[in-house]
């Protein structure tokens, strides 16, 4: 039975996946609807999806892969469409099996091609193609028992307003069950799973249908057109699934639903000529078009990792993606000491067009000058002959080391880049350091360099009126290839620790290399255990043991049995990445007190972080907050500020709208956390490590 | 206007001087310090008078910080207290981000009194009384051990506290510098360091987390620092491999020169003293090429003189004129070696408060002590000075206001010209009361 569970789950997920929900319970509800309300439909779908699933298993695809619901929701939809038209008998069963396998193969192939060429999801395009083929082919198959030729009973519904009935029937039409009861059931499923989606479905339908009403002039016609389910799907996909829910994504959902109106009408007219239904083609075309355009234009809030509901995606975005931007590469600061960003991306001098993602660095003194004395000699410039380090780990693919340093005030227009080094990073890009001083390069073509390795000395070769360092990432190996956006993994700015971000033009930054002791202190190894006493208002509550364990994807987490607190050292800081578990788990306080610890604590160093909502909110409240946040992103100020007191202690202040929480953390020089204190308005919590010298001394 | 009478003299014509914008003579005039006229300073605060420039102190610190951090990513400057531990001076450096380097219980207590947290103190020195050592351990100071006996003391303290203590080892080594300061710490070449490390590991109470070396003072060979850095890196890697310790810091001590003219050196300091950038380059290059990229121990520099020397001036007044039997001119100043301990090592720059007509001629500057050794400068080249003329001696910021003596006379005021140009007294002149306060007369002598 246990082995069957993932299979059942993934089949159920394919039902809920049509509505962009990854909830087996919702899938089960939809399955039951379909089987109860129209057994013919329900069973056909089940047969089709099972055959696709089994075939995928025969191909050797694993559960993890098939958990991606779109692989089998397409066969499911095809099954529904066949079941809608034909009665189940041995012949149509065979037809279902064949079409299920075909649609699966189509999905498999198309999704790979779409992703490769367009970075787009395949949506239900295979279903559109599959069901069209099924419909076309069935013209010849007179042995199939066409249901619509035979009347089957329809219930007459108690009277509902036309718009409501239209909406519910359209919702049902997604599953080929254009019935009010089904629609109502589906809406409840959506509402229960995601308030954002429920709202979007209504908004999308209303926008599209109202516009259709304006054009056709017939309220009756507009609200009884079942193809308007396309508007619902478009609104769901754009408003909450493929874009991070925000006022902008909502706007995009409405606009897309509106522009889909003529498309829906047109495809309906077109396919009717062939006697075929329009299916979900308008939804697919509109959504893909909008997504592709947004991708091209560099829209920042595309969903990278859909978490099952828009709410969860938003939560994930607000915390993890805000903390670790995934769309840009992170590199190390290639210098030592304080440098000024002289020209940033889209700079006023040369960082334009394809070369806009670049940074020029110089060193300035307190008066803002880049040189001492009169600045007539290269040696007067603070940046001149300062070491330059590799920002990435990779292979050196190009070295130019023979161009002279230009005297201050002049520039070499023929070789603008001057002496430079190009390093290929296996993550898939090239890093360029330019204007280096001739004869100072420590690397040669073919060398493997690691982050922080000495590359050469800063110079003034090429188009360089004064000594400075130029850094950019580019897509190709030749100098001058289009540049790529990037961030620095860590740096200090005015005594503040910043990570995964880029300083602005005119700001002074310095690297934040980790301290060796703290690196060890916060390097937790598999199987290590730490025992803590938990006090509430100085009253002993419980004793628990934190253990380090590893998740299947290779990330490590602490667990005390109930919750899981994921952590990692990245760049120059230790991070708590994610908390999973019940609210009673004390681990969430660890997250609260130390979401990020720069590995270079020193009196006065301060930093900020974003906290995930679950570390301080219950599930209901959290859902509500996320719903509001999607409209009003600045509604919740859940920021935490931390400040180091010395090399091992730091305090934090978390402002959560009106509520303030104060935290203090003491690290053990040997390993881990010695004490964590949480001060709330009405209670004080503290976690004290039980000293075990055995472990200390065995280090 | 009638020109004042000048004694006729024959002067060698020096073409080079004429081409300079400023003749060497007028360069020897200093009318003000950071905009405050010398005359005004003396009128208000008396003579002799030590004057420190806050602007220069901060600028020099920032310059050094920018310089070294530009070459190596993790640098800590630890202000060497013994160079000048006046509260105000220390405060300025601490404000700029320097930690404190102390070598005695007195200096440790002074740093703590100034509010420097224990973990921002580097504790060196050959004798650390056990009481203060215990305090330093509890307060988390970086302790660099100088002798085996100190290790025994620390092990005892570790037993008391029940925790493993993290310490630094002071190492002496051959870096090509003479004389070698081999009385401090443990010798590298003889293998003493490794023996001591084995002993520490066997004891199980201590863990070595830092290495320290101090080659000497006023070192004019930047390469020596490069060699020291190399040797310390090699040693740290050996210790890490053999004993599993993590060497968190490498402390290269101090000894960086200021632009002061060392006795015995013929060339002027501008030529003889290598720029500090060369020291930074040599140290950084040695570290960067030997250390694994990105895994950098903290580099601690215990700069003192290089930070403070050039920010200090001593204003002194000619109190009497003399002609020595050999014909040389001599002046009696109101400041002597009692205030200028570094007069034993340096030829100071001697500047006159105003342009004085007349040819410069060699002369001797004596202090006010009735001691033959009280010579501030054996041969200065000065125009004929009248009684009451004020001279400005520099650089005198390092070691003088710590090694000065209360001998024969009182010690004068020390003032600070602030960044805004105000003058603040940072140490009052001594009075009779200060000196006799500690004295006691036994009953029978009363």
UniProtKB/TrEMBL annotation, chain A:
GO cellular component: plasma membrane
Transmembrane stretches, start-end: 12-37, 43-61, 92-110, 122-141, 167-189, 196-215, 227-244, 277-299
Signal peptide span: none
Membrane topology designation: Multi-pass membrane protein
Principal place of residence: membrane
InterPro entries linked: Ammonium/urea_transptr, Dup_hybrid_motif, M23ase_b-sheet_dom, Urea_transporter
Subcellular location: Cell membrane
Record-level Gene Ontology MF annotations: urea transmembrane transporter activity
Keyword annotations: Cell membrane, Membrane, Transmembrane, Transmembrane helix
Superkingdom per UniProt: Bacteria
Gene3D superfamilies: Ammonium transporter AmtB like domains, Glucose Permease (Domain IIA)
Domain M23ase beta-sheet core residue range list: 384-474
Family: Belongs to the urea transporter family.
PANTHER family in the record: UREA TRANSPORTER
Protein name in the entry: Peptidase M23
Organism from which the protein derives: Thermodesulfatator atlanticus
Automatic annotation (TrEMBL), chain B:
Pfam family, one: Orn_Arg_deC_N
Listed InterPro entries: Ala_racemase/Decarboxylase_C, De-COase2_CS, De-COase2_N, PLP-binding_barrel
Domain called Orn/DAP/Arg decarboxylase 2 N-terminal: residue spans: 60-308
Cofactor(s) needed: pyridoxal 5'-phosphate
Cleavable signal peptide: none
GO MF: diaminopimelate decarboxylase activity
Keywords per UniProt: Pyridoxal phosphate
Transmembrane intervals: none
GO terms for biological process, alphabetical: lysine biosynthetic process via diaminopimelate
PANTHER family per the UniProt record, alphabetical: DIAMINOPIMELATE DECARBOXYLASE, GROUP IV DECARBOXYLASE
Protein name: Diaminopimelate decarboxylase
The species this protein was found in: Thermodesulfatator atlanticus
């Amino acid at each position: 039975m246990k082995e069957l569970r993932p299979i059942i789950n993934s089949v159920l997920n394919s039902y809920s996946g049509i509505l962009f929900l990854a909830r087996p319970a919702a899938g089960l509800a939809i399955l039951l609807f379909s089987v109860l309300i129209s057994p013919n439909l329900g069973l056909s779908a089940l047969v089709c999806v099972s055959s696709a699933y089994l075939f995928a298993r025969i191909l050797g695809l694993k559960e993890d892969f098939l958990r991606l619901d779109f692989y089998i929701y397409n066969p499911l939809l095809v099954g529904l469409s066949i079941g809608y038209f034909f009665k189940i008998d041995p012949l149509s069963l065979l037809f279902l099996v064949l079409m299920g396998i075909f649609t699966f193969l189509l999905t498999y192939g198309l999704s790979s091609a779409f992703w490769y060429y367009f970075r787009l999801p395949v949506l239900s395009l295979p279903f559109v193609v599959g069901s069209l083929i099924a419909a076309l082919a069935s013209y010849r198959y007179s042995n199939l028992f066409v249901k619509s030729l035979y009347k089957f009973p329809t219930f007459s519904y108690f009277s509902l307003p036309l718009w409501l009935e239209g909406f519910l029937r359209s919702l049902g039409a997604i599953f080929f069950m254009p019935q009010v009861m089904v629609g109502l059931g589906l809406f409840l499923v959506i509402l229960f799973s995601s308030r954002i989606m429920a709202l979007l479905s209504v908004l999308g339908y209303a926008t599209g249908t109202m516009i259709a009403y304006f054009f056709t002039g017939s309220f009756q016609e507009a609200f009884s057109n079942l193809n308007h389910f396309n508007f619902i799907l478009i609104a769901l996909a754009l408003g909450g699934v493929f874009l991070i829910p925000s006022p902008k994504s909502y706007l995009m959902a409405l606009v897309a639903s509106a522009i889909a109106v003529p498309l829906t009408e047109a495809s309906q007219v077109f396919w009717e000529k062939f006697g075929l239904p329009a299916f979900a083609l308008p939804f697919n075309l509109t959504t893909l078009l909008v997504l592709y355009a947004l991708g091209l234009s560099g829209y920042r809030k595309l969903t990278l990792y859909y978490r099952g509901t828009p709410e969860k995606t938003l939560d994930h975005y607000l915390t993890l993606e805000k903390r670790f931007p995934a769309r840009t590469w992170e590199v190390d600061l290639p210098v030592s000491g304080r440098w000024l960003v002289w020209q940033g991306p889209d700079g006023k001098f040369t960082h334009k067009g394809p070369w806009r993602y670049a940074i020029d660095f110089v060193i300035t003194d307190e008066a803002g000058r880049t040189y001492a004395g009169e600045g007539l000699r290269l040696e007067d410039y603070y940046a001149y002959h300062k070491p330059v380090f590799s920002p990435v780990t990779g292979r050196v693919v190009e070295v130019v080391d023979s161009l002279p340093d230009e005297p201050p005030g002049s520039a070499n227009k023929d070789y603008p880049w001057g002496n430079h080094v190009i390093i290929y990073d296996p993550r898939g890009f090239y890093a360029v350091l330019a204007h280096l001083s001739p004869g100072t390069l420590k690397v040669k073509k073919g060398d493997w360099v690691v982050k922080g390795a000495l590359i050469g000395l800063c110079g003034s070769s090429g188009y360089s009126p004064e000594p400075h360092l130029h850094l950019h990432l580019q897509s190709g190996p030749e100098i001058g290839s289009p540049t790529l956006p990037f961030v620095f993994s860590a740096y200090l700015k005015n005594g503040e620790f910043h990570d995964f971000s880029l300083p602005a033009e005119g700001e002074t930054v310095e690297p934040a290399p980790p301290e060796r002791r703290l690196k060890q202190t916060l390097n937790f190894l598999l199987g290590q255990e730490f025992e803590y006493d938990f006090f509430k208002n100085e009253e002993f509550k419980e004793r628990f043991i934190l253990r380090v364990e590893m998740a299947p994807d290779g990330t490590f987490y602490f667990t005390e049995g109930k919750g899981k607190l994921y952590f990692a050292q990245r760049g120059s800081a230790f991070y708590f990445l994610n908390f999973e578990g019940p609210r009673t788990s004390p681990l969430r306080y660890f997250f609260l007190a130390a979401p990020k610890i720069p590995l270079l604590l020193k009196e006065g160093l301060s930093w900020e972080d974003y906290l995930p909502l679950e570390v301080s909110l219950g599930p209901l409240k959290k859902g509500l907050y996320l719903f509001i946040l999607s409209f009003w992103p600045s509604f919740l100020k859940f920021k935490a500020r931390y400040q180091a007191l010395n090399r091992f202690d730091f305090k934090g202040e978390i402002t959560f709208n009106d509520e303030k929480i104060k935290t203090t953390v003491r690290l053990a020089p040997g390993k881990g956390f010695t004490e964590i204190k949480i001060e709330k308005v009405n209670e004080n919590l503290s976690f004290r490590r039980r000293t075990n010298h055995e472990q200390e001394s065995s280090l | 206007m009638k020109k004042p009478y000048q004694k006729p003299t024959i002067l060698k014509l020096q073409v080079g001087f004429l081409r300079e914008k400023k003749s060497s003579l007028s360069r020897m005039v200093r009318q003000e310090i950071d905009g405050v006229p010398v005359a005004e300073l003396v009128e208000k605060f008396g003579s002799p008078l030590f004057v420190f420039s806050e602007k220069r102190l901060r600028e020099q610190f920032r310059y050094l910080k920018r310089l070294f951090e530009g070459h190596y990513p993790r640098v800590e400057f630890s202000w060497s207290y013994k160079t000048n531990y006046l509260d105000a001076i220390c405060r300025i450096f601490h404000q700029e981000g320097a930690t404190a380097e102390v070598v005695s219980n007195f200096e440790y207590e002074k740093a703590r009194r100034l509010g420097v947290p224990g973990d921002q103190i580097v504790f060196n020195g050959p004798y650390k009384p056990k009481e203060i050592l215990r305090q330093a351990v509890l307060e988390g100071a970086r302790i660099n051990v100088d002798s085996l006996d100190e290790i025994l003391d620390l092990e005892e303290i570790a037993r008391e506290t029940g925790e493993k203590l993290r310490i630094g080892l002071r190492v002496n080594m051959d870096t090509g510098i003479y004389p070698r300061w081999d009385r401090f710490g443990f010798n590298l070449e003889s293998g003493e360091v490794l023996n001591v490390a084995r002993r520490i590991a066997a004891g199980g109470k201590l863990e070595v987390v830092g290495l320290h070396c101090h080659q000497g003072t006023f070192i004019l060979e930047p390469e020596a620092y490069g060699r020291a850095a190399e040797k310390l890196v090699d040693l740290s890697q050996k210790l890490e491999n053999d004993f599993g310790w993590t060497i968190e810091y490498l402390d290269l001590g101090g000894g960086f020169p200021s632009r002061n003219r060392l006795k015995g050196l013929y060339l002027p300091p501008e030529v003889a003293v290598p720029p500090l950038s060369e020291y930074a380059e040599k140290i950084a290059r040695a570290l960067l090429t030997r250390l694994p990229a990105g895994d950098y121990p903290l580099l601690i520099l215990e700069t003192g003189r290089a930070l403070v020397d050039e920010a200090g001036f001593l204003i002194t007044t000619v109190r009497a004129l003399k002609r020595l039997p050999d014909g040389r001119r001599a002046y009696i100043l109101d400041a002597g070696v009692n205030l200028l301990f570094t007069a034993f090592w340096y030829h100071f720059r001697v500047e006159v408060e105003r342009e004085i007509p007349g040819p410069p001629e060699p002369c001797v500057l004596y202090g006010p002590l009735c001691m033959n050794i009280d010579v501030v400068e054996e041969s200065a080249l000065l125009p004929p000075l009248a009684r009451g003329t004020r001279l400005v001696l520099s650089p005198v910021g390092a070691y003088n206001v710590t090694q000065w003596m209360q001998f024969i006379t009182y010690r004068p005021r020390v003032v600070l010209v602030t960044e805004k140009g105000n003058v603040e007294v940072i140490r009052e002149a001594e009075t009779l009361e200060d000196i006799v306060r500690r004295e006691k007369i036994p009953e029978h002598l009363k």
